[in-house]
Amino acid sequence: MNHMIKAFALAATIGFVSPTLADEPFKIGFIVSNPIGEVGWDHELDRGRKEVEKHYGNKVKIQAVDSVGEGPDATRIMNKMASQGNNMIFLGSFGHMTDGIKLAKQNPKLAVIHAGGYLNEVNFATYAAKHYEGAYLAGMAAGYATKNGQLGIIAAFPLPEVVNIMNSYVLGAQSVNKNLKDVKVVWMNSWFDPAKNRASAESLVSQGADVLFSLFPGTPSAVAAAEEMGVYVTVTLSDNTKFAPTKHLAAVQVDFGSIYVAKIDEAIAGNFKGDDTFAGIKEGAVSVAGLSKDLSEEQRASIMAKQEEIRSGAFQPFSGPIVDNTGKVVVAGGTSLDVGGIKGMKFVVKGIDTTLPN
Predict the structure, then answer these.
(1) Is it the case that residue 14 has pLDDT exceeding 50?
(2) Omega prior to 321 cis, within 30 of 0
(3) Measured at the alpha carbon of residue 343, what is the angle toward residues 319 and 316, in degrees to the nearest 5?
(4) Which residues have C-beta within 8 Å of that of residue 23, sequence separation ≥ 6?
(5) DSSP category for residue 321
(6) Of 184, 175, 182, which Cα lies nearest the Cα of 143?
(7) Nearest CA among 199, 180, 173, 176 for reference residue 188
(8) What is the pLDDT of residue 11?
């Protein structure tokens, strides 16, 4: 899967010679790394593709390939898509970035858009969702629901995007519950490992966690395990209620469709920009979903009210004062982190029991 971090986009445009829609469809290729499951990263990328099909109908022709791991196979397939006359290619994994940029440079009239990367070229754009906005809301739900104050997080990799989601989640929980214990973290060091995902959930529960956060899991294994163990669970990317009908507490739901349509519109019009899109609640790319009925009406209303504050710009999750887990002030009172600070985050907030690699 897929992500990261600082954006130094070249906000340039390229003069594509696009097919007139009346003459022939606009050809788009989609590449994702894993099988399309019922929830998770690849599922949401593919759901965005389906929204494109619904939006444009026969005005576009889509070629989609899943289960393409990072490396030579992905490079071969993206090059084949370009040689087959696709006008635009979507790359769904962070590891596709380097070869994707090479492809874009070799094919200046091809529009390439990459999920979660941090490099841009004239015809190579990037996009990411502000998952951290929804994570703050899911964290509020966790803070409300915990009975013993012990939260546990199963995290993919110690990368800045994962870290900013984790931090926002804990800040959200702390905002409604001042009696939390230090949050325990298990690093999976994998985007997709169902067995390890489940084992991590079991480990955290054995350490006392009564609310779990499955952060970029790629699989519902931890969610299903939480249901079996009788502990609440929150999750990124997709509403997982079907896998934990009684213990699903909240999900950070993403919707990539609006991002896709905006960039495809640019490419069809011949003014595709090699920039970075960072979209959140305001743009409809992120929302809190699957809120448990075990939360009180007042608690759910509080979470939804905070979502509207984020949407309007009245609230930003990374507003100071914020202290890291070494006691250092990392966001001063009266200030908020900018996009660069959020995308390049290298600290964990006070109240999280973990360290980051140097």
Answers:
(1) no
(2) yes
(3) 25
(4) none
(5) P
(6) 175
(7) 199
(8) 35
* Pairwise CA distance, residues 135 & 132, whole Å: 5
Place 95 in a pLDDT band, splitting at 50, 70 and 90: confident
pLDDT over 80 at 216, yes or no: yes
Tokens at residue 81, please? 């898509």
CA nearest to 165, candidates 210, 132, 122, 143: 132
- Contact in structure between 275 and 10 (CB atoms under 8 Å): yes
Q: Can you tell me the distance from the alpha carbon of 257 to that of 279, in angstroms, rounded to the nearest whole number? A: 11
Identify the residue whose tokens are 């970075």.
Answer: 276
Helix (H) or strand (E) holding 145: helix 131-145
Residues 271-280: what's their mean pLDDT? 97
pLDDT at 90 over 80: yes
Residue with structure tokens 């979502």? 307
Q: Give 115-140 as a DSSP string.
A: ES----BTTEEEEEE-HHHHHHHHHH
Regarding beta strands 183-187 and 276-279, do their DSSP bridges make them parallel or antiparallel, or are they unpaired? unpaired
For residue 220, cis peptide bond before it (omega within 30 degrees of 0):
no
User: For residue 308, which amino acid is it?
Assistant: E
* Alpha carbons 65 and 72: distance in angstroms, whole number: 15
Give the closest residue to 9 by CA, choosing from 343, 311, 244, 299: 343
> 154: number of CA atoms within 13 Å, CB side?
36
Structure tokens at 139: 């964290």
CB 241, CB 232: distance < 8 Å: no
For residue 264, give both structure tokens: 């495809």
User: Does the pLDDT of residue 18 top 70, yes or no?
Assistant: no
